[in-house]
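Format notes (please read before filing issues)

Several people have asked whether sequences and structure tokens are stored in separate files. They are not. Every record keeps both together, in the order shown below: the sequence lines, then the token lines. Line labels are part of the format and must not be stripped during preprocessing.
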Amino acid sequence: MGHSGHPPHIYNGMPAKHLGTEGWQKPWSGTNGGSCVEAMKLGDGRVALRQSTDPEGPALIYTTHEFETFLQGAKQGVADFLLASD
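Then the structure lines:
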């Protein structure tokens, strides 16, 4: 929480711990030993992402439109180049 009990100003790169511990989910976790991306839907519809191995590290904040575009593109395979080995 911010000053006087008000929620903190939410901005890209803010410490993820300032968003609290409740509401984080691991939709992409698997057999990777717990190292995964965690996501939280914020009250204003934006999406926060953090690295599970660094829960107090920076949070990336995306608008609803940005995250919808990312997910649609990922489903269509446009990010597959990130997984391709050279």
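For reference, the curators noted about this record: The chain has a mean pLDDT of 87. The two ends are 45 Å apart (CA to CA).
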